[in-house]
Amino acid sequence: MTACAPASPPMTRALPEDAGRWVRAVLLGLCLVLGAGGLAWLAPRTASAEEMVSLATSHFDFRFFEEHRKVAERLAAKAEKVRDRHCALLPRCDEGPFLVRIARDEEEFLELQPYQAHIDWAAGVAYAELSLVVLRLDKDMLLTMDETFEHEVSHLLLLRILPKRPPRWFIEGIAIRQAGQDLLQKLETVSVAAMSEGPLPFSQLDETFPGTPGGRELAYSQSGLFVSYLASRFGDKSLAKLITALSFGTGIQEAATKVYGVSLSRLEEDWRATLSRFAWLKGLTDSWGMWFALSLLFVAAVFVRLVRSRRRRNQLAEPTDADWEYRRRE
């Protein structure tokens, strides 16, 4: 039975004997009614792997709680196609199986992670050495659950074939590109930074990302944009060659020079130079920029209308053509 021992606030005077007896009776009754299991809803919920339902595909094993079966079924229906699309960029693909756990909230998200991890700000996390992905349903982020799943699958497949871990910006940049996340939104974020302090040096993003939400967003944004820049400039095949070189244990600096013919630092400089070309897009996304653009369109429309009216008046002022007058009378 649950022991109830509510703390009593200090009183200036004691309760009458009858009132005290009544309060004690009420508290005792509550304890008897609630019992040992009646207060279970007050206790923290523990995510038990034994309580989770399993749904397997050829290479994935989804574990989830029954109330979220539809989410798991939706992810499972596309899981193999996601794997095939990601594997197309890799020299070889790990066969798995990959375990995907779906947590309901932050508490379960932490409990379902190994090593007593405390990654509580993310919507998903991948542990490549364990072939494990943990997704979080309640996290309100820019990415959808489907995008988060694809993002984490990219981490698993990439890191499973590399003998040593590449820079963090490269891992995240590849995942953002493969998951097809909105690069225009990320372009806006980096463009704003380019107009002020500039993007973060990639040398600072080799091991970790900044701890602040704004710093993380900028780091993810520029990582995705830089990898997409490499693919756009040199082609997806060159990106695949870069990953192949990494799979043989070559470092990122040497691999980039071998594949692209220039150093990674030079590529970063070239990419930074392209940001100023897109900075004007920021103005169009702001309310002031939108109204300014609409005002320009309105002025242009009025100007065109005035020009047409003036031309029409000039035509009416000229001598009329007899043939034209004849046709009108008919």
Class inferred from helices and paired strands: alpha/beta
Sheet of most strands: 5 strands, mixed
Indicate the CATH architecture of the largest domain. Answer: Orthogonal Bundle
* Number of DSSP E strands: 5
Brief overview, please?
The protein has helices at 17-38, 69-87, 106-111, 145-160, 168-179, 183-195, 213-234, 236-247, 252-260, 264-275, 280-285, 287-317, 322-329; strands spanning 53-56, 60-64, 98-103, 124-127, 132-136. It folds into 2 domains: 49-279, Neutral Protease, domain 2, CATH 1.10.390; 286-329. With 330 residues, the protein is an alpha/beta fold.
Describe this structure in words.
The chain is an alpha/beta fold and 330 residues long. The chain has helices at 17-38, 69-87, 106-111, 145-160, 168-179, 183-195, 213-234, 236-247, 252-260, 264-275, 280-285, 287-317, 322-329, and strands spanning 53-56, 60-64, 98-103, 124-127, 132-136. A 5-stranded mixed beta sheet has the order 1-2-3-5-4. Helix 2 (69-87) packs across helix 4 (145-160), helix 6 crosses helix 7 (213-234) and helix 7 (213-234) packs across helix 8 (236-247). The longest helix has 31 residues, at 287-317.
